[in-house]
User: Which sequence fits this backbone?
């Protein structure tokens, strides 16, 4: 493992502030970032990630390589929840297994953007359309989760209330904001892009840093829930991302993605959703316990990815000569 | 001057807000009060709001209504409480006629 | 150990906050609790807070007081409720003397 | 109609994000910007609009042209509510007619600043003192509204509680912040102006964009109220701004305002207040139904102005050779 | 269908939140509801929240419990109320069994 | 008194917006900045003050002069509360005397940063390690306050619950954020520092200005409490800062601090804490009345320092040829 990238990643202010948040909770400090401030940061980040993705997409262009990447993304977003569901069913009831599987089939935009920041620092190029892949991978896992519940839960539920499930999966707040901003980025003129730059580029890294301080606070508080859930779930939260990342890197090699895109594709498969999926699961699979799937995605998988995962996957990509 | 009414208090997962409002309208309940960002603990565990979404928060609804409106309302309410959890308390009060 | 008290609950348009506090002070009410950003529906329509100002929000006030303090208070309160709407509920409770 | 300006205005990120907000509500998405985030944006915008106005006012200077413009502004801010009141009385009670008339006699700072952004994009010059005109037009309509109620409502109300009405009109939060920031802008040194620039100029367009996303959400939610109020009010919400704008442009031509100032004057007359006036009306005219005048100003007149109005008025100004 | 319960309402300085939750857990109280950012006035003066920290705010806690759980709870509660102020009201209600 | 510096300080936008906040409350305007917006500003300011301090500390270096300054800071942070306690005991009970003494022994980061802004405007150099001195002076006064209560309050309390008191003093939210950000600033690379600049330097002065508008509102609202407390406390709130500043300047002269550092040291001694200490006092000394020590620190001492104090202390430093 090339300690250099690992260390340079861990010494990035965003990751350092994540540690500060965790430390504050472990030291029982009363440091707190009250609602709706976390909501302000996550809305800003989704808006800017989408908009910048749209702008880069416009510069880029569309070719078969882009299409193949999108197809791979959608397949991953359906395969991961199905495989995860059967593994989780070893120890969990249908509802919780489906909800956690949906979370791990979906993605975390902030993990994605922490990876793009690292790529920029190491000046490794990547394509704008990867943000579109991010948007594509948000929702399918939610539908997969609900279908799995209907298939395996006791049969007394008639069919699936498809309109509501699809609205929950494809029209929840984060997806609408991400996809909407992406489309607006596509339509924006050069002048508009320029006048938005201090907002979308200037303060972006600073707001991301402030947000990761809050994520550290939230993750550390969720840790207490996890201690009660036992080793199996923590194990899944650590292993699933690594396995998913390795598989993603292999697929990337097969499709011939560049180094940057491969890392982003691995991070999408390895990251779990803690905003879009929990919001959807509460309505479609209310029997599942939110503190389980939120804690795993936020307190185990998110820290794993931004501290160790991202540099590790990059290392692996270089090893396999993608 | 005063009329006896029933005070219905409901605390339920905030995700149920729309469903609950629809239910009130179906039961011809024209007056109610809603508090958001309510925290608490119950059978479904701790809801301390500590999250990026309002996944871990409740809502509190207060309804002052006549005695005869209580029965139809709680019959519609029961299936929601059974499926999504939450509590419903009913007490007596006097309504100041103005 | 315990003393019987009256629980007065008032829900009114948030614009009435200052007027209501003055009224409480005039009626020698030294203790009260106030909740802001309260939503609801009543004769004056839906107050869902969905606005740039707190035009469409209510406040909830809880007052525990002795029986004899109720009458003067609600006499002062009635004109406000008539003009600006809102509700007032009165119920019984025991006050823990500490 | 020169489609060019219309389209370039509609393709501006702020307007596009307004559409995104409206679309999110129509698609029943749970996208929401919880209080007090909208308050944060509107406080920031008022502070920056006022401060920048003061700075430009200092650079500008004072001459008869400025004085005439101010007089025209005040006359408009009194004439519009009176005329609107009588039109509204055809279908509405005294209280609602007066409250809506006051809203349309007052102004919307965000509509004003959307127009200045367009002028900057088309590099059409305008004067700093127009922000002072904006400030002058905030309050008179509120006083007019209250006076109309006392005149026409049943007589049992003795006189007008002038201290309270004047405080409500001239000392409500938005007016104090706008006028206060304007005065501070006047006093600020070059160095202070410079060190504030990343805050007042840099992120301004971005925050405006974020705010218009929220305005889209609020406007679309208010639309439901409007469907119940019937065609007359929606008609008034669409026609009054156009009529007011045409009259304003004629006045601008007579006084000899430049193209930029004429557009801003038209926008001031055509825009309706959804922050200052509702806050004042609730205290002085509580019998009026806030969901009526808020919905008309926010869900009908605001979208009309920023999507179609502003480019249309500019077109008209060029036609009449102002 | 319904069972009689006791409604305990506590309003206390928000700094006491953790101590109060511990106390509830010690008294085997498994269900409670908490409201934050509560304002008010009492013996300790005005708490209008107008401050950079939540120094000047209260919390409101609602506990529905059986009659026999009331005594042990208020015995533990009294020392906190004496030292830090606040109020405790106890009233009757019916719990909807679902 | 050189009116120049006094005026140039008072005409700074932050101070002007403080006056605007005070004026809004005195005019009974409904201008309000609702929670948790003030919390957002103070968290941002603490994070940026700490981070920039850490960055400057890294550039600086460590020598005996730094060590002596730190020792002087800690001694001041213990001496001030003890002396203040005995003065306050002339009129106040043990609990309130200790709480107010602790507030005046501690510091206000925003007063500190208003002074650094003035130094930058007058291009007077100062050292990065002064932020470390700020961090060092946050907590000792809290411990001193609690010890004084245990010593002089009636003896029925057994000993001091040291773990809780120390956690309250050294691990409260503001201290953890300030010290944490300082350490992260020390570790940050040049590239990271650069990409954070629009956030930590660009919008800093603007957010400080917005924050002082809110401080003006809060200070003016607290003034009402003070009128009830009587002249003694207002007198203490005005005199203690001046006396502490003079003593600090004398110490600075003895230790041989530069002009910039001497001003900052004086401001640290002269400023009182209205965030960290109140939060700690509520738990460790609940018998004290928060509206007393919060109002004095926020409505008397803070305005005194930023309007008159800072330029006055600078004047004094120049007079004594520090
Ligand atoms: N005994 C109780 N007293 C007061 N509130 C309760 C009680 N039980 C549950 N709640 C509230 O209802 C919410 C949902 O309850 P549950 O479905 O039992 O988890 C909890 O988060 C509490 O806020
Ligand atoms: N029957 C009721 N039960 C509970 N809350 C009510 C009731 N009627 C009105 N309210 C509350 O009082 C507010 C004002 O009522 P109104 O003046 O009737 O519109 C409403 O927005 C509700 O929050
Ligand atoms: N009589 C009362 N009725 C309702 N709330 C009260 C009453 N007395 C006190 N409170 C609440 O309890 C808090 C603390 O009370 P105290 O310790 O008496 O200052 C106050 O800030 C109020 O929110
Ligand atoms: Na994934
Ligand atoms: Na107008
Ligand atoms: Na000090």
Assistant:
């Amino acid at each position: 493992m090339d300690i250099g990238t690992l260390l340079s990643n861990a010494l990035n202010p965003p990751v350092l502030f994540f540690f500060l948040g965790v430390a504050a909770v472990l030291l029982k400090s009363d440091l707190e970032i009250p609602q709706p401030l976390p909501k302000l940061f996550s809305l800003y980040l989704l808006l800017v990630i989408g908009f910048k993705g749209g702008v880069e997409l416009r510069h880029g262009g569309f070719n078969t390589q882009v299409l193949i990447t999108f197809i791979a993304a959608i397949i991953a977003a359906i395969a991961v929840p199905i495989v995860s569901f059967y593994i989780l069913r070893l120890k969990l009831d249908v509802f919780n297994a489906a909800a956690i599987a949906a979370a791990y089939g979906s993605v975390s935009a902030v993990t994605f953007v922490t990876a793009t920041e690292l790529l920029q620092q190491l000046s490794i190029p990547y394509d704008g359309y990867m943000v579109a892949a991010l948007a594509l991978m948000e929702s399918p896992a939610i539908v997969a989760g609900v279908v799995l519940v209907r298939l395996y839960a006791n049969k007394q539920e008639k069919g699936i209330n498809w309109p509501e499930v699809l609205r929950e999966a494809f029209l929840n707040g984060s997806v609408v904001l991400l996809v909407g901003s992406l489309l607006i980025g596509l339509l924006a003129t050069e002048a508009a892009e320029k006048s938005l730059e201090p907002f979308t580029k200037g303060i972006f890294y600073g707001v991301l840093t402030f947000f990761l301080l809050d994520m550290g606070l939230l993750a550390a508080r969720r840790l207490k829930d996890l201690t009660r859930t036992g080793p199996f779930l923590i194990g899944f939260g650590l292993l699933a991302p690594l396995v998913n990342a390795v598989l993603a890197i292999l697929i990337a090699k097969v499709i011939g993605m560049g180094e940057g895109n491969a890392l982003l594709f691995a991070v999408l498969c390895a990251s779990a959703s803690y905003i879009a999926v929990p919001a959807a699961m509460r309505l479609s699979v209310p029997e599942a316990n939110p503190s389980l799937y939120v804690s795993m995605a936020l307190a185990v998988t998110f820290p794993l990815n931004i501290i160790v995962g991202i540099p590790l996957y990059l290392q692996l990509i270089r090893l396999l000569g993608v | 001057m005063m009329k006896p009414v029933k005070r219905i208090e409901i605390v339920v997962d905030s995700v149920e807000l729309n469903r609950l409002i629809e239910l009130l309208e179906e039961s011809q309940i024209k007056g109610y009060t809603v508090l958001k960002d309510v925290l608490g603990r119950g059978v479904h565990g701790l809801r301390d709001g500590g999250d990026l979404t309002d996944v871990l928060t409740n809502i509190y609804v207060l309804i002052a209504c006549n005695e005869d409106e209580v029965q139809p309302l709680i019959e519609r309410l029961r299936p929601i409480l059974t499926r999504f959890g939450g509590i419903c308390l009913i007490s007596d009060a006097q309504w100041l006629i103005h």
